[in-house]
Fold this sequence. Notes:
By secondary structure, the protein is mainly α. The protein has helices at about 5-15, 30-45, 50-65, 90-115, 120-150, 155-185; strands spanning about 20, 25, 75-80, 80-85.
Amino acid sequence: MPVKGLMLVFWGIVLAALDLRINQVDLLPDPLGYVLAFAGCLAMSRANGAAGPAALAAFLLIFLSIPDVIEHKEILSTNGSVTYYQDRYWVISIFKNLVDLFFVWRLLSVIHELASERSHADLATAALHSRRLYLWMTVAGMSWTAIFWVYPQSLWVAAIPLFIFWVFVILKLLKVISRAHRELADERGFA
Length: 191
């Protein structure tokens, strides 16, 4: 895959993961990150067709992430001075999370396959490990969201450990992509 393809995906994931909001408007909109990820996966798919499904998922994520640019929340309940909210577009959010999981799964599968072909066993193992962590992070996040709908007061019990796990998984994912970019580069312009 072209060298710049993986780096576009890297920066796309960084933009999609960062959430800087002022007055409920995301200043680093996720669709922009997914445009970069799509461009990177498209460049990769030209050299390695196995990246095609990741490119398609990134393309879908561009549109699925648009409702999140401006937060749309409805009040679930109020308990004293604490107000609990629910995202109006929760069905889209669930589908977006599943497509995002597929995107990362396919991306890491391509890295695993290329690393295995080129005898980079450590990188291949890191890609598989990161893939499993991302799966567990997605399952944990979606489970927590479902529990929160039923028991809104449970928010803080799991939110902080889940956020720490999310940061760890995203950093590990970015490290694997960066390593793949460095270690899989060769004279044909692949990375």
